[in-house]
Specification:
six-stranded mixed sheet; binds prephenic acid; Alpha-Beta Plaits; about 400 residues; globular; alpha+beta; D-Maltodextrin-Binding Protein, domain 2; chloroplast
Length: about 400
């Protein structure tokens, strides 16, 4: 990855990056929030160019991020009140353009994850990362403000690695974005479908196109880290018998021809991505929200039934359930007193609830679950993506 171009020195909030002992006069204020380069949080301002006292609100997800400065120098002699900060509106808090934000994704430029990052934060600066883990760390270490990572695909299923990483890291889910994935078969100029013996791509993309590839008579599959990375390899190595499955944008970027479009096995192919941040957002009840949780249970009959019951009883709809090995305790000794003790697999359950953490019903359900769960963590409460994928 060409990380040097994207991952620059960690930027810090104005509080730490600017000396507090150098007060500046506050000039007349523009009336709206202005975002500048993300590397300098201090340049996001409501009212002045002198950001010495950061507040805790940002302009995108609604929580900590670029600080909104409050001028603390005396009022100018004339009674011009424009220099005073205007009150924040909820539009400021929930703005979604992402101007000035650095958004980490896994893959090379032209990957679907980059398209998802741009869909989530249209004016952001995207930061390609080699691995999912790198994207998590980029946000944790302030090299990026958000990460946008795939969680599940309508044809290929869950991206298990990211479920595991959610627990290993301390980031919060602050949003979701669904992206329609339209795969293309790409090859070097002059290469025809009949010449192809192998298809190279991300394992999810290969899985999503399995039947079509077989119909094309392409027998071999080569898995790489991301779809755009496959296009890059095919182009750089001038491969003549291998095609890449990637986006039409990747074809443009790496100088490949599009041999076939829309080659996924079902035309409705949607990947759901999560948006991650260092801070959670403030949950609301005035629009559809989801809450993602992870928990583990005691061994025994009816435990999962009981866990599902806390939501069913309160009419909270579940949109997703996924079980993963309990990495800290993958096996446990089960002694049912009828046979010799045996080792059983232990699981973590990831669930998405169609509910906001701001709703007392959700809080009660989770309070109830906590009474018998052996572990429970809320991964985030965030607006449901209601837009067309
Ligand atoms: O390889 C890419 O382009 C990605 O963004 C990754 C990824 C995935 O992990 O599922 C994203 C969307 C598609 O489902 C295929 C691949």
């Amino acid at each position: 990855m060409d990380s040097t171009a994207c991952l620059r020195l960690p930027f810090l909030p104005a509080r730490t990056s600017r000396s507090s002992s150098s007060p500046r006069r506050v000039p007349r204020a523009p009336s709206s929030i202005k975002c500048c380069a993300a590397a300098d949080f201090s340049s996001l301002s409501i009212s002045s160019a002198s950001p010495r006292r950061p507040a805790v609100v940002n302009g995108v997800d609604g929580l900590a991020g670029p600080p909104v400065p409050v001028p603390d120098s005396p009022a100018p002699a004339s009674r011009d009140l424009h220099w005073l900060p205007r009150p924040l509106t909820s539009a400021d808090l929930m703005g979604t353009s992402g101007e000035g934000l650095k958004v980490a994704y896994q893959g090379c430029p032209g990957a679907y994850s980059e398209a998802a990052a741009k869909k989530a934060y249209p004016n952001c600066q995207t930061v390609p990362c080699e691995h999912f883990d790198t994207a998590f760390k980029a946000v944790e270490n302030w090299l990026a403000d958000r990460a946008v990572l795939p969680l599940e695909n309508s044809l290929g299923g869950s991206i298990h690695r990211n479920f595991d990483l959610l627990l290993r890291h301390r980031l919060h889910i602050v949003g979701e974005v669904r992206l329609a994935v339209r795969h293309c078969l790409l090859a070097n100029p002059g290469v025809k479908i009949e010449n192809l013996k192998s298809a190279m791509s991300h394992p999810q993309a290969l899985a999503q196109c399995e039947n079509t590839l077989t119909d094309f008579g392409i027998e071999h599959r080569e898995a790489v880290d991301d779809t755009a990375g496959a296009a890059k390899i095919v182009a750089e190595q001038k491969l003549q018998d291998t095609g890449a499955i990637a986006s039409s944008l990747a074809a443009e970027l790496y100088g490949l021809n599009v041999l076939a479009e829309n080659i996924q096995d079902d035309k409705d192919n949607v990947t759901r991505f999560m948006m991650l941040a260092r801070e959670p957002i403030i949950p609301r009840t005035d629009k559809p929200f989801k809450t993602s949780i992870v928990f583990s249970l005691e061994e025994g009959p009816g435990q999962l039934f009981k866990a599902l019951g806390v939501f069913a009883l309160r009419e909270i709809n579940l949109t997703k359930i996924e079980s993963r090995p309990h990495k800290k305790r993958p096996l446990r000794i089960a002694d049912d007193s009828f046979s010799t003790p045996s080792k059983q697999f232990d699981y973590l359950f990831y669930m998405d609830l169609e509910a906001s953490m701001a709703d007392p019903k959700t809080q009660n359900a989770l309070g109830n679950l906590k009474e018998f769960a052996t572990f429970l963590r809320v991964l985030g409460s965030y607006p449901t993506d209601v837009n067309e994928a």
